[in-house]
Design goal:
It is a single chain. The chain has helices spanning 2-17, 34-46, 90-99, 116-121, 128-135, 140-146, 159-187, 200-205, 287-296; strands spanning 23-25, 50-54, 79-83, 102-105, 110-111, 138-139, 150-152, 230-234, 241-246, 249-255, 268-272, 282-285. It is α/β, with parallel strands linked by helices. The strands form 3 sheets. Strands 1-2-3-4-7 form a 5-stranded parallel sheet. It has a 5-stranded mixed beta barrel with strand order 8-9-10-12-11.
């Protein structure tokens, strides 16, 4: 069970700390014309990185200078374009929003209408965003409300925040698992101090000890000592009943010498089965007397 819990915890930690994927900001030295910039960013995109382009000013669209549609590629799913408030995109910025895999715009940003020249050099204008910008310029808020595939800038949760949340949840899971392990460990602690082992039989034989008799007697008069006997260790005081350990198992026993002071816990006694056929209480005798009896027999 402990191995299973540890494996689940380790798996949760790995999920929380492994990054979702490489990310990169757009390089500042990628040139000025549109196709040159796309080619520069494409190197990082081909490596699987997420390239973020933030438009702080209008971006021109001059793909025709580099071969028209051959310079404009559609496989830009790892490109993320952001348009802050107060910025209008220009023809190149609007084209980037259409080509990008993720478009983020502020509600106060201005997204320029695509003119006929730009439309001719772009791939087929089939998605909702391209169709909307084909008609007129729009604010970021209008595009967000139209639900044409753009998201609100600042309204999304960053990957870092998500990772922090995952780590926090994993820490809570760790505390819960530790509490569970402590509870399981305490449930397996022996019921009597000094016992070296506990078994199912031990738990089954533990029963409430009756009240101690009057001080005039230390035990119970049981008559002649029966045979055979076995050596046991006293684990609780025999007044007159207590527990002895025999073969690493606790048994209920009664002190069978009422005129003698019973031994203290840790002392050795000789135990025999009770006279009553259905009784599970053992009779405890002094070991010296038992050894003397063995020598005289």
């Amino acid at each position: 069970m402990r191995r299973t819990l540890f494996a689940a915890l380790l798996f949760g930690l790995l999920i929380a700390v492994i990054p979702a994927g490489p990310a990169a900001a757009a390089r500042a030295d990628c040139g000025k014309n549109f196709p040159t910039r796309l080619g520069c960013w494409q190197d990082a995109l081909d490596d699987g990185a997420v390239v973020t382009v933030t438009l702080n000013k209008p971006l021109g669209f001059d793909a025709g200078q580099k071969g028209g549609q051959a310079a404009v590629r559609r496989d830009l799913k790892n490109l993320r374009v952001q348009v802050p408030a107060g910025v209008h995109t220009g023809q190149g910025g609007s084209a980037l929003l259409i080509l990008a895999g993720r478009a983020l715009v502020d509600r106060d940003a201005r997204i320029d209408r695509l003119d006929d020249k730009t439309l001719r050099e772009l791939p087929a204008c089939v998605d909702d965003l391209c169709k909307a910008l084909k008609k007129s310029s729009l604010t970021g808020g209008q595009l967000i409300d139209k639900k044409v595939g753009v998201a609100e800038l600042g309204g999304h949760r960053s990957t870092d925040h998500t990772r922090v949340l995952l780590i926090a949840l994993t820490a809570v899971l760790l505390l819960l698992l530790l509490a569970l392990l402590l509870a399981v460990r305490r449930s397996r602690t022996p019921a009597v101090a000094g016992a070296t082992e506990t078994t199912t039989e031990t738990t089954a034989r533990l029963r409430p000890v009756p009240p101690a008799p009057a001080p005039a007697s230390y035990g119970r008069q049981v008559g002649p000592r029966p045979d055979p006997s076995r050596t046991a260790v006293v684990r609780t005081a025999l007044h007159p009943q207590g527990y002895v350990e025999l073969d690493h198992v606790l048994y209920r026993a009664v002190w069978a010498e009422p005129d003698r002071t019973p031994p203290v816990p840790g002392a050795y006694v000789e135990v025999t089965d009770a006279h009553e056929p259905d009784s599970d209480v053992l009779y405890a005798f002094p070991p010296v007397a038992r050894h003397h009896a063995r020598g005289s027999s």
